[in-house]
Amino acid sequence: MRYELVIFDNDGVLVDSEPISNRHLAAFLTELGHPTTYEESIRDYMGSAMHRIHELVLERSGQRLPEDFDDVFHARVFAAFERELKPVAGVEDVLEKLAADGVPYCVASSGSHERIRVGHRATGLDRWFDEGRIFSSQDVGRGKPAPDLFLHAAEQMGVAPERCVVVEDSPLGVQAAVAAGMDVLGFTAMTPAERLTGASQLFGSMADLGELLV
Q1: Distance between CA atoms of 109 and 32, rounded to whole angstroms?
Q2: CA 183, 186, 187, 193: dihedral to nearest 10 degrees?
Q3: Tens digits of per-residue pLDDT, 74-126?
């Protein structure tokens, strides 16, 4: 294998959470007086850390979101995860193959550690990811599109950035991986290919990912 570390984004790559999360985000923002459609939420916020939502709303409206915004939003989303969340189709086969082949892998997500853990428990993916394989934007000063999170994950896993490959489905994540000097495989299941400019290669099904890693 040409890579020494596979870094997975979480939402939309490991767990099929983006439809759930963005449905609730659009509804909550609209409820608070910031009309947002599901499509706009996907376009503007998919793949971003929570601070980006606050920053964009303030920039566009001049109004700050409530102090308890994050807590209320996460409570709603986590409850929905428990009811609805599933792993991305085919990703368990990918993880099983990496583990069998002894290929190091980890997750580096804009979401909080709690969000990652809730999603993994709900889908059964927690068996693939111990604490040493989980990295969150909470661990660094800046989230995606800054390269900090991916560089932090590589450092903690003991692999040089140029020997890493990132699996991403958001424009912000692709930008972050490129900025980190890593190859990036763009997953187009939810994101139009033209929005993942900069990806080394694109793929639309997890069944195709294995061939791109070797």
Answers
A1: 26
A2: -170
A3: 999 999 999 999 999 999 999 999 999 999 999 999 999 999 999 999 999 99
